[in-house]
Amino acid sequence: xxxxxxxxxxxxxxxxxxPLPPAARGSPHRLRRQPRPGGGLPGSQPAADTACKNRPLxxxxxxxxxxxxxxxxxEKVKIFLSKMIDTLDVGERTTRVAVMNYASTVKVEFPLRxxxxxxxxxxxxxxxxxxxxGTMTGLAIQTAVDEVFTEEMGTRPATFxxxxxxxxxxxxxxxxxxxxxxxxxxxxxxxIYAVGVDRADxxxxxxxxxxxxxxxxxxxxxxxxxxxxxxxFRETFCAVNVCALGTHDCEQVCESNDRSYLCDxxxxxxxxxxxxxCSAVDMCxxxxHxxxxxxxxxxxxxxxxxxxGxxxxxxxxxCSAMDMCxxxxHDCAQVCLSNDGSYSxxxxxGxxxxxxxxxCSAVDVCxxxxHDCEQVCVRDDLFYTCDCYQGxxxxxxxxxCSRAITxxxxxxxxxCKCEAIAxxxxxxxxxxxxxxxxxDEVSExxxxxQGRQQVV
Length: 456
Hints:
Helix content is 29%, strand content 22%. With 456 residues, it is of the alpha+beta class. The strands form nine sheets. It has a six-stranded mixed sheet with strand order 3-2-1-4-5-6, with helices on both faces. Strands 7-8 form a two-stranded antiparallel ribbon. The termini are far apart.
C-alpha cells in the first residue's frame, strides 16, 4: 500500500500537464537546458565568449504589443531581443532570426531571409512599433507556421536538419484558441518557448509550450527584469553535449555521458527493452492500487470508480450501494423496491404492474374468478359489492341470493282504500241486485199482460 501511494504521489504532477505529443517526444531537434560549466548560477553572465557557438537554428521571436503593454515596457522587450541576438551565433549558415509583432493583428517585422548580421537585426528591432489592441496569440503562432517557417521566407530545407524554434513573449491571456494551433505547430517539428511577464496567464503558457514544461516556460514579474532570461536561453542554445545537439533517439529524457548518452524516462514511466522508448507504468496492475471495485489508469496514475448502482465514498477508494429508491433515482409509478444497488417496481393493492415493469393499472375486481358474488358483481373503484337479479333478494352473507316472497301486509292507508273500495263494491252490488229484482218484476208483469192480450 505504501509503495502504491508513493507512486501515486509522484505521478500527480502528470495530471496537470498535457500529454506529450508523439512528434515532440521523438523530435531529434530537442534543445535541453544543461548545467552551466563551472556551476555558475542561472542568470549570471559569463566572463568571456558572450556569443556562443550554438548549433544553427531557425529562430522566430513572437512579441506581444497589445494595449496592456505600455510603451516603456515594449522598449524593454526590444532591448531583450537585442541582447538575445548578442548571445547568438548569427549568420546565413548559422542561426537565422525572424521577428513577429502581434496584437489583434499580426505583422512579420522581418523574416528569416532578411538579415544575417547582428547590427542590421538590432537596427530593425529598434524601429518596431506596438500594434496596441488585442492578444491573438494563436493567430500569431499560426502565421509563423504558414508564412515564416517556409523556404520562400528563409527557413532551411528539412534535409538540413536545422531546428525550428519559436520564443513567444506575452503579458496577457490569449483571446483566441491557442491550444490546437500550438499543438499543430509542435507536431510540425517547431519547438515553442513561452515567456510570461507580469499578468501573463500561466495555464496558457503551459498549453502552448513544448515539453518538458520546466525547460520551456519562463516567467518574470516585470518587463524591467526580462533581460535576466537572456542567460537562461544562452544556456539552452549554447549547449554542446550530445543530448543538446539533438543527435540522440531518446523518447523522453537524454542523459549526457561524456561523448555518449543514456536514455531515461519521466517519473511514472519505465524504459522499454529497446532502451530508447518509454511506457507508462500500469498503476492498475494487481497490487499497485487500492480501489475497492474499479481502477481506471490515467497517464501514469489512476483513479477509482464503482460499478453501476454504487457510488464512490469520500475516501475516493471504496464504494457504497446507492439507494436506488431515493426520490429522483427511479421511474416507478407507485412502489420502488431497493435491491443491493438496483431496484424493481411494484404496485399498490388493487393494481397490477404493466408490461413496461414501471407503471400500474387498476385491477378489474369484477372479472371472472376475482369475486364471490352469486349473481351480480357491482364494481366500486378498487372494491365491489354483490347484488341479485329481479325477483331475488340478497342474503345476509351479502353474496348469495334467494327468490323474493310477496308480502300480504298493507299499510293503513292502503287498508282504508281497500275498505272504501269494498264498501263501494257492496253498495253497487246491492243496487244492482235491487235493480235486477225490479227488472224481474217488470218482466213478469209484461209477460202477464201479453198473455191476456192473446186471450182477448
